[in-house]
Amino acid sequence: MRDIFTAELTALGEDLAAMSRLVETAVASAGTALLTADLALAESVIADDHTIDAMERDLDERCVLLIAQQQPVARDLRVIVSGLRMSASLERMGDLARHVAELARLRYPATALPDELVTTIRSMHEAAVRVSQQVTTVIETRDLELAAAIEEDDDLLDDLHASTFVTTATGRLTAQQAVDITLLARFYERFGDHAVSIARRVVYLVTGDFADDRGEML
Amino acid sequence: MRDIFTAELTALGEDLAAMSRLVETAVASAGTALLTADLALAESVIADDHTIDAMERDLDERCVLLIAQQQPVARDLRVIVSGLRMSASLERMGDLARHVAELARLRYPATALPDELVTTIRSMHEAAVRVSQQVTTVIETRDLELAAAIEEDDDLLDDLHASTFVTTATGRLTAQQAVDITLLARFYERFGDHAVSIARRVVYLVTGDFADDRGEML
Predict the structure, then answer these.
(1) What pLDDT shows up at residue B214?
(2) Chain A interface residues facing chain B, Cβ-Cβ under 8 Å?
(3) Which of B84, B183, B215 sits opposite A182 (nearest CB)?
(4) Which value, in Å, is the radius of gyration of the alpha carbons in chain B?
(5) Residue numbers of the domain that contains B10
(6) CATH number, domain at A128?
(7) Would you say residue B216 lies in a domain?
(8) Which of A126, B3, B49, B149 is most open to solvent, judged by the fewest CB atoms within 10 Å of its CB?
């Protein structure tokens, strides 16, 4: 009985990692589609998002069944409840990657971003791709140092997000450019927040400490 | 034993409703602060958000304890897991109200919105206030008709959100105005999404059916 339960928990972790790998692909492709005005790539991100959504629903069902059938206590229960939270975060990260792809599709064939914004978005894209890879590894290995690295890249995303408010306040941008950079920076900033939330849940599972994550918008 | 458990479930529902009432106050005050450039009101929303965050953490703890101690199955378990999800949605709704207040504070003493945008934001504000009140009532009464009304107001929020893309595309706005309307419309649109998610969970608890909520951004 206990062996089956342990196997189920292991499968849960593997599925979270698989979901995270799909998010990696989604965010990498979405940013590339945006920066290179690649419509087909944008469409593929949008079309593939339902797979991530379906994985979340499947994981949820299984978590609830696992609680119902095995009636876990203490640590096992904590793992399962954390799994529910992490799958919700991964699903949102997939949505945010899809939003980036939707904006790329909306603006196609233009990229519609002036040089100074391309630099910012490219930096956010690179940080988001890094963060998504780290999330997969943290889920797989529970490496606490890597969890800390996610916080650093999230700080970078927050700084870049804040810098876009400065850029839009200069008045050098058109309204359309201002809208695009505002949305994109927000999507990437939220992407980082969800990654941090996952990292903190992994730290919590390992150490029992959960950092408060009250993120500021501005 | 069963009586204690039933009492705990009832308390859970009451606390979700209490949390929802705090969200009502937050979103009503945040929109008023924005539309009337009321700095003190904006500050109060920002300061009070930690109470909503604390309620979420407390509810989470109790849900996990309840599962651990009572080992509920079937319907009871469904109620508790839905409670976890609803508290997460309410916490996000509180964050979004805080974001509106933060923007009001950032632009103070100006409201910084031209007339055509004030009309849109006022409509979004009113729909969000309605939605937040309906969410409280739906949690308290499990009224399925009211749950449907939340979907209607969410559709209105989606339409208003979409209309801001048209407005910003006209080129009549300054970049700053475009940024403000883009952020605000996004906050209100997400607020509606979370309300719908709560409404659907209540419907699910009553009927067993859960509607898919794959919201589109654009």
Answers:
(1) 39
(2) 49-50, 53, 60, 63-64, 67-68, 71-74, 77-78, 81, 84-85, 88, 95, 98-99, 102-103, 106, 165, 168-169, 171-179, 182-183, 186, 212, 214-218
(3) B183
(4) 18
(5) 2-207
(6) 1.20.58.220
(7) no
(8) B3
* Residues B50, A214: C-beta atoms closer than 8 Å: yes
- By CB atoms closer than 10 A (0-12, 13-18, 19+), residue B75 is exposed
Neighbouring residues of B86: CB distance < 8 A, sequence distance ≥ 6: B16, B139, B198, B201
For chain B, the domain total comes to: 1
**Cβ–Cβ below 8 Å for A77 and B67:** yes
Is A213 within the bounds of a domain? no
ipTM at complex level: 0.78
Nearest CA in chain A to B94: A214
Give yes or no for residue A113 having a pLDDT over 80. Answer: no
B120-141 mean pLDDT? 96
The Cα-based distances of A27 to A128, A189, B210 in angstroms read 7, 13, 28
For residue A218, tell me if it sits in a domain.
Answer: no
- In this complex, do A178 and B183 lie within 8 Å of one another by their Cβ atoms? no
Residue A216 lies inside a defined structural domain of this protein: no
